[in-house]
Amino acid sequence: xxxxxxxxxxxxxxxxxxxxxxxxxxxxxxxxxxxxxxxxxxxxxxxxxxxxxxxxxxxxxxxxxxxxxxxxxxxxxxxxxxxxxxxxxxxxxxxxxxxxxxxxxxxxxxxxxxxxxxxxxxxxxxxxxxxxxxxxxxxxxxxxxxxxxxxxxxxxxxxxxxxxxxxxxxxxxxxxxxxxxxxxxxxxxxxxxxxxxxxxxxxxxxxxxxxxxxxxxxxxxxxxxxxxxxxxxxxxxxxxxxxxxxxxxxxxxxxxxxxxxxxxxxxxxxxxxxxxxxxxxxxxxxxxxxxxxxxxxxxxxxxxxxxxxxxxxxxxxxxxxxxxxxxxxxxxxxxxxxxxxxxxxxxxxxxxxxxxxxx
Length: 359
Fold this sequence. Notes:
CATH topology of the largest domain: Isopropylmalate Dehydrogenase
Largest sheet: 10 strands, mixed
Number of helices: 12
Shape: globular
Number of domains: 2
Number of strands: 14
Distance between the termini: 25 Å
CATH class of the largest domain: Alpha Beta
CATH architecture of the largest domain: 3-Layer(aba) Sandwich
Mean pLDDT: 94
Strand order of the largest sheet: 2-1-3-12-11-4-5-10-8-9
C-alpha cells in the first residue's frame, strides 16, 4: 500500500522533530510493507522569508492532494512584529480552514515511567492520566469578526465569538464518538452563565447527547474545568469545548503530563485527510542544538497512521515503542529526572526506531 504524505517542517525545532517522525514512519513502512511518498513544503516563518506568505498556495494545494499532512512547528520572535494576518501563525489558521479541519484532538497521557515528571502530586496523578481534549478549530473568536475603532477614551478593539448549531453539532459528534471508543464520558466545557454563544453550545451538545445514550455527559464552566484539571484530572475522559477555551485547556492538560514536548495532536474534518502536529511550539532558543524532544512529533505520526490511514496496529506499535524506550530510562532534557539516561533529539528517534525494528 502506498500513501502520499505532505511534510511541513516549519520553523525552529520543527525540522528536527519532524525529521525523526518521518524516519519512524519509514521504519514502520519497512516493517509492515507500506510505502510512503514524502513531499516537503513551506509554511510559517520560513515561507514568509521565501515568498512573503505564511501559507503559499502551492503548499495548500499539495496538502489537498495528500493522504495526510505532518507539521512541525511555526513561529518565532523574528516575525513577531508583522501584522496579524502576515505572521507565521496565520498560516496555521488558514491551512486548517483551507483543508476543512474543524476538530482538534489532543490526547494528554501520563506514562507510568514519567509520573515523577508531572508537576502534580503522586496522589493526584494516581495510577495514570489519559485525557482527550476535542477542540473546535474553525469557529469562535479566532475566526469571528474583529477590528478596531476610536472612542473618546482612545482606540478600542473587539473580537466576536460566534457559533452556529451546525458547527457545535459536528464537533460534539466527534467527541461522543471518541468517548465510545474510550471510557464513555464527555465533559462539555463552556461559559453558559455569561456568554450567549456558550448557552447555544450547551443546548446543542445536550441535544446531540441523545444520539449516544451509552455515553455519560456532564457540563462544566471553563474556570471550574481549569481548576479541576489540576485538582482531579483523572475524572476526565473526553473534554469537548470551543476554539479559545480548547486552546487554553489543552495546553494546561499537556503540562500536567510533565512536558509539552510529549503531546501530539490531530486536526480532522469530514474526510480522512488530517493535519498532525506536536502541541509544542517552535522553541527557537534550542533549535539546531539536538535538544528538542521528538516524541510529540513521533506520536503525531502515530495518530496520522490511525486516523487518516486506518493503520491501527502500526499506530499502536509506535505508542508501545515510545513507552518501552521511556521504561528503559531514556529521556530528553525536558523530561529528565535523577538517574535518567539523557539523550538528544536524534538519539531518541533512533532508540524508538530500533525498538520498532526489534533491535
